[in-house]
Specification:
By secondary structure, the protein is α/β, with parallel strands linked by helices. It has 28 helices and 13 strands. This is Bifunctional SulP family inorganic anion transporter/carbonic anhydrase. It comes from Streptomyces fungicidicus.
Length: 800
């Protein structure tokens, strides 16, 4: 239980993905049986103790019969609680509807106001059928907060008159105008009771020691009203009190009378306020549930369309029975969550307790002074003007929307104020969209073009003028300080960048923080972004050709041209600047990557590398002929010498892979063949030492993540990686750099079917897979050792 009266932010959002449950996600608890847990029972009592005085106070503030607040609370608990889509949101008469309802009662009378409530409920059910509930989340928070603040100010100003012993007017301006006269004619007893109520309301949650435990059991609104009532009775004060007439004389809804336009406007106003407040409140309740300690995964997230149905049904019944309009209520909902409720049973039980109190506690309720209820409602109204909301909208530069909405609600009404707020919000958005500042500044090393604001076609003329001030052949930095760029602006920037680069200049695009737009923010790999994930990549082949036993794909004569065209169209604009830099500076790769010619090995993809990062050598079987071997291939040796001595690479990687055709051919080759007749056969002779290594290993073969090789072909692939590393050590340039400690060797195995990489490291006969996050210290490499030393066959943890 809780005594807190703090409100929840109605515009907080949460993930609204459908829950996964064994029972119906939003049906009544327990399936066909209504089960009540101890947590729901205690939470329902806490919510009831808060709801009872607030319902009476809101009814008093609207000028409706006091029973109307109890009817709305009961309907909100029982009907919205069972039918609605939010398990723990508590519905009832809300302070946010006070101004709207009070105006309707003054203008149309009570019975027509009840009919308007019924029509608003039907409208809510119709909106739910159209599944537009999520549209409420698109309302600007500044408008919602401004509407609540305006309503809160209106409530507080009106209740001040009752606190002082007078009677309020319907308009805020009239209440402010008559306030000096009311202060001159203040009733001391009413003021004393109001002050006592406010004092208890503020002090009760702050009791120290043992009082704090008691404050968790009894909510502050109940203690404040009960304390003020007891003090008034003991002192024998003669004050206006609650007067609950007999239920037999309770007024029900009547046929609506009045101008059709006015009635339609009234229905729209009630529908708007109740729907927006309920839907945003449901989302905020989800956020409170997710932040609550413990496992609440069994509590489903809110179904907003179903919540709209529940609120509509509650309004239909409440209006028909002579109750106030119903919506989700922040104070009661937050108390329900904080009290530990676990299902909608707590909300429904709270409605049952309200009915019992309305039938059995009428003599007790009649003792409550109206000044105590008025001060309670005034405190709620003041809380609706949230300083936290004001700071938030100020930080997001929407204070104008907030102020206009608040003043509009105070001076003209809720619907008019919201309309004014929407108009200002649209104006602010258009102003931001069209207001772009472009500046040009020259420094010693570059020309800086800064674009502040959204970059649209309206700003293209000014952008091109600024860009043309950059001399040919110079370095330019364009800083984009905004969150939107349309197609026209994008093309203008790209065309200028291409032209400027071709003319010998350098153009760099940066974001607000000054980092290159094309560069990633991940510290693990700062060179380039990893490839975009893809699947079912068949380059336009007919679907039938991809099926087992299907017809072969037709030959596409222009397939290469099509691919080149796609590169020029889609990729070249993004990499042109980087390639221009590489063209000027020359290649400076950090790694020689020696791998198989297999078409399924895309080295840039599996290593997340970009242009200039890898010096790649590919051949059939990823073989490194040993120096001095008969029929040695000088092309591989030349590439190794160039990479090690000229490019000064810091590491060499030999990468084998699963399903290697070269290794399978080695296994199938006739053992006694003296001199193969084909070039492929002669080349594969460089893999014979790998066959010998596999045979010599016996049963101590290298394993993949603790499992033995799947077959002989995989066993040979692993042995071949280790053998080619030994051949590398025999090359003079490699041996020299290893002795200097400026070069490392590493082996790699890529399982194509699993898309899984394995890295080699010394000491154990184990291939370990690359995991999703870097291991402490990063991946290990095979260090240089004594000449003739055979590297071990362990693969270290690295990055998947």
């Amino acid at each position: 239980m809780t005594s807190s009266t703090s409100t929840i932010n109605p515009h907080d959002t949460a993930d609204l993905s459908p829950p996964s449950r064994e029972q119906e996600p939003h049906g009544p608890p327990g399936g066909g049986r209504f089960r009540i847990s101890g947590a729901d029972l205690s939470a329902s009592i806490a919510v009831f103790l808060i709801s009872l005085p607030l319902s009476l106070g809101i009814a008093l503030a609207t000028g409706a019969p006091l029973q109307a607040g109890l009817v709305a609370a009961a309907c909100g608990g029982l009907i919205a609680g069972r039918v609605g889509g939010s398990a723990l949101q508590v519905s009832g008469p809300a302070a946010g509807l006070t101004v709207v309802t009070a105006d309707l009662i003054v203008q149309y009378g009570w019975r027509t106001t009840c009919a308007i409530t019924v029509l608003a409920g039907l409208a809510q059910i119709g909106l739910a059928a159209l599944r537009v509930a999520r549209s409420a989340l698109a309302v600007s928070p500044a408008i919602v907060h401004g509407m609540l603040a305006g309503i809160g100010i209106t409530i507080a100003v009106a209740q001040v008159h009752i606190v002082l012993g007078g009677t309020p007017h319907s308009a805020v301006v009239d209440n402010l105008r008559d306030l000096p006269a009311q202060l001159a004619a203040v009733q001391p007893e009413a003021l004393l009771v109001s002050a006592l109520t406010l004092g208890l309301l503020l002090a009760w949650p702050r009791l120290p020691g043992r009082g704090a435990r008691l404050a968790k059991v009894l909510p502050a609104p109940l203690v404040a009203v009960a304390g003020a009532t007891a003090a008034a009775q003991l002192a024998g004060m003669n004050l206006p009190r609650v007067d609950l007439p007999s239920w037999s004389s309770h007024a029900l809804a009547g046929f609506p009378t009045g101008p059709v336009t006015g009635l339609v406007t009234a229905v729209v106003a009630v529908t708007l306020v109740t729907s927006v407040q309920s839907l945003l409140g449901a989302v905020a309740v989800d956020k409170l549930i997710s932040a609550r300690p413990g496992d609440d995964s069994h509590i489903p997230r809110s179904d907003l369309d179903r919540e709209l149905v529940g609120q509509g049904a509650a309004n239909v019944v409440s209006g028909a029975l002579g109750g106030l309009p119903v919506s989700g209520v922040a104070v009661r909902s937050s108390a329900n969550v904080a009290a530990g409720a676990v299902s909608r049973a707590s909300t429904m039980l709270h409605g049952l307790w309200v009915i019992i109190a309305a039938l059995l506690l009428v003599p007790v309720l009649d003792l409550i002074p109206l000044a105590a209820l008025a001060s309670l409602v005034a405190a709620v109204g003041v809380q609706m003007v949230s300083l936290n909301h004001i700071r938030t909208v100020t930080r997001h530069r929407e204070i104008a929307v907030y102020i206009v909405t608040t003043l509009g609600v105070v001076l003209f009404g809720v619907l008019e104020g919201v309309a004014l707020g929407v108009a200002v919000a649209v104006g602010v958005a258009l102003h931001r969209l069209t207001r772009t500042r472009i500046t040009h500044r020259e420094t010693e090393d570059a020309h800086h073009i800064r674009v502040r604001g959204q970059l649209t076609f309206l700003a293209v003329p000014r952008l091109t003028r600024a860009l043309h001030q950059v001399p040919r052949g110079s370095r330019a930095v364009v800083e984009l300080d905004g969150s939107f760029m349309d197609h026209a602006a994008y093309e203008a920037l790209q065309d200028w960048q291409t032209t400027h680069t071709v003319q010998g200049g350098e153009a760099e695009m940066t974001g607000r923080a000054g980092a290159r737009i094309a560069e990633p923010t991940s510290p693990s790999h700062s060179c380039c972004r990893p490839w975009t994930p893809w699947r079912n990549h068949h380059c336009g082949e007919p679907a039938a050709a991809l099926l087992p036993g299907g017809p072969p794909a037709p030959v596409r004569v222009h397939e290469l041209a099509d691919g080149l065209g796609a590169f020029q169209r889609d990729t070249a604009p993004h990499v042109r600047g980087e390639l221009a830099r590489l063209a000027r500076e020359g290649q400076r790769p950090s790694q020689l990557f020696l791998t198989c010619s297999d078409s399924r090995l895309v080295t840039s993809m599996i290593t997340s590398s970009g242009p200039g990062d890898l010096f790649t050598v590919r051949n059939v079987g990823n073989l490194v002929p040993a120096p001095g071997t008969e029929s040695a291939d000088d092309s591989v040796a030349a590439a190794i010498e160039y990479a090690v001595d000229v490019l000064k690479v810091r590491s060499i990687t030999v990468c084998g892979h699963s399903g290697c055709g070269a290794m399978q051919a080695l296994l199938n080759a006739p053992p006694a063949e003296a001199e193969p007749a084909t070039p492929l056969g002669r080349w594969l002779r460089h893999g014979l030492p790998s066959l010998d290594r596999m045979a010599a290993e016996g049963g101590s073969w290298a394993t993949l993540k603790g499992r033995p090789p799947a077959d002989a072909a995989e066993q040979l692939c692993l042995a071949n990686v280790v053998q080619q590393l030994e051949h590398l050590r025999a090359h003079e340039a490699v041996a020299r750099r290893l002795a200097e400690g400026t070069l490392t060797l590493q082996g790699m195995y890529f399982h194509v079917g699993e898309a899984q990489a394995y890295l080699l490291a010394p000491s154990q006969n184990l291939f370990d897979r690359v995991v999703a996050s870097p291991a402490p210290g990063g991946p290990h490499e095979v260090p240089g050792g004594a000449p003739g030393e055979v590297p071990g066959e362990e693969v270290a943890d690295a990055v998947r």
